[in-house]
Amino acid sequence: METLQHYIAFDLEFNTVGEETHIIQVSAVKMANGQEVDSFDTYVYTDLHLQSFINGLTGITAEKVASAPKLATVLDDFKTFVGDTPLIGYNAIKSDLPLLVENDLDLTGFYKVDVYDEAFARRSTDLNGVTNLKLTSVAEFLGISGHGHNSLEDARMTAQVYEMFMEFDENKTYLTQQEEEHGDNPFAALGGFFD
């Protein structure tokens, strides 16, 4: 997994009516050395009827999107927020990035880590056999709390899961170095304490 000290975790919420999908929330958190240093969060105007399912799932109401900025403004602001910072997401390669491209914002060149793919690869090791890889399930397994289907909360959970994965990798690297230096004797590293 690529290790990033500075990155942006992002997420979108969207509403699909018939054949049309409209972005209704864009959120991101900017991370530096394990700490959130900035965030981006806005609803997006749509005149399409919000499905009651979407309202119940996300808590986004018609009133929230009716007074929100239009998509072109939101995407311009989001592009400015991202700049040239690497991006991570949770299964964004299959939904969020294509939806942005469809709306004339191609950030695929900045996308570095799909945390869902990492979770899938780690399900039998770091995630101890977790079969449900929804973001909220993975986060809960790792002791991370958050409310799913709010894109700001999802972006924060994505960043926290990624941070945990980096910590797991760092610990594995340390253990490998210890084994190489001291063999498989668990007490060998203590040798200097008893002289």
From TrEMBL:
Gene3D superfamilies, per the entry: Ribonuclease H-like superfamily/Ribonuclease H
Keyword field: Exonuclease, Hydrolase, Nuclease
SUPFAM superfamilies: Ribonuclease H-like (SSF53098)
Top-level taxon of the source organism: Bacteria
Pfam families, sorted: RNase_T
Keyword Nuclease among UniProt keywords: yes
Signal peptide: none
CDD domains associated with the record: DEDDh (cd06127)
Residue span, Exonuclease domain: 6-171
Any one GO MF annotation of this record: exonuclease activity
Protein name: 3'-5' exonuclease
Naturally occurring in which organism (per UniProt): Streptococcus alactolyticus
